[in-house]
Amino acid sequence: MNLIRRVRALYNLSDFLLQNVAYTVFFHPIRSFTSNSTCFRGMRRRDLRHAKILYRSMHRGKTLSASHSLLYWLLGRKLMIVAVVALDGVERVVGIDMFYANKRDVIERTIHEGYVCVSEDMAGKGIGTHMRELAIEHFRRNGLSGISSRISLNNLASLRVAEKSGFAPVEKYYDDEMREERYYLIRDFCSGKRYLT
Ligand SMILES: CC(C)(COP(=O)(O)OP(=O)(O)OC[C@H]1O[C@@H](n2cnc3c(N)ncnc32)[C@H](O)[C@@H]1OP(=O)(O)O)[C@@H](O)C(=O)NCCC(=O)NCCS
Q1: Residue 83 C-alpha to ligand 1 middle, in angstroms?
Q2: Which residue of 75, 83, 121, 186 has the fewest C-beta atoms within 10 A of its own C-beta?
Q3: How many CA atoms lie within 13 A of 104 on its CB side?
Q4: For residue 74, how many other CB atoms are within 10 A of its CB?
């Protein structure tokens, strides 16, 4: 039984990684730019530990899964935006915006925003907005049609921030695992015609 579960987990991990590698194989790396002493760029392997620490501290102590850690170790320059500030030559990751492709994204030519956060002491300075703008420019440049996301209906703050970045709900569903209603949202790069009414 244990062996079957392990084989299935290994299969799912390989499937997830191969799907993302194949989907992004011709993607250019995320370009970088600096604004107000904060550098926005694709994640480098040396950033991963700090990105995971920020993720955990902002995500109610939840650790980034092994499959996602491996994904970003492999493809961080194409799939994760980091915001970095340097103090006395020491770099600190203060924001992350992480993406991956689900099967639905591959079919619809979108990319899924798994999680975006900015460290509490740097919030409200436009870092979240810059990371999303860079993400839109990056994925549009690589030929995608939009960014997908999932947000619970009761998470009003996230819905408001997503709405400000141009995301709109295209589907409402009940998540059995989370036991709550959620929206599937799209930030469409071309038009607003897919929006849920
Ligand atoms: C959401 C988050 C990434 C925004 O990053 P940020 O750098 O603080 O955001 P910005 O300074 O770029 O502000 C973006 C806009 O969202 C608004 N905003 C930010 N946080 C908000 C909140 N909690 N409720 C409502 N609006 C909010 C800002 O007022 C701003 O609006 P404006 O352009 O009209 O002034 C950050 O607050 C965060 O890490 N939150 C916790 C993690 C989270 O909830 N992630 C989203 C779920 S995946």
Answers
A1: 15
A2: 121
A3: 10
A4: 15
Best CATH choice for the domain 2-144 from the list 3.30.950.10, 3.40.630.30, 3.40.50.10610, 3.40.50.300: 3.40.630.30
Confidence band of 161 (pLDDT split at 50, 70, 90): confident
Here the tokens at position 29 are: 């790396």
Does position 193 have pLDDT exceeding 90, yes or no?
no
Average pLDDT score over the chain? 93
Q: Reply yes or no on whether the pLDDT at 106 is more than 70.
A: yes
Structure tokens that stand for 158 in this block:
């996230």
What mean pLDDT do residues 155-161 have? 90
Domain boundaries, the chain: 2-144, 145-197
Q: Whose CA is nearest to atom 25 of ligand 1?
A: 157
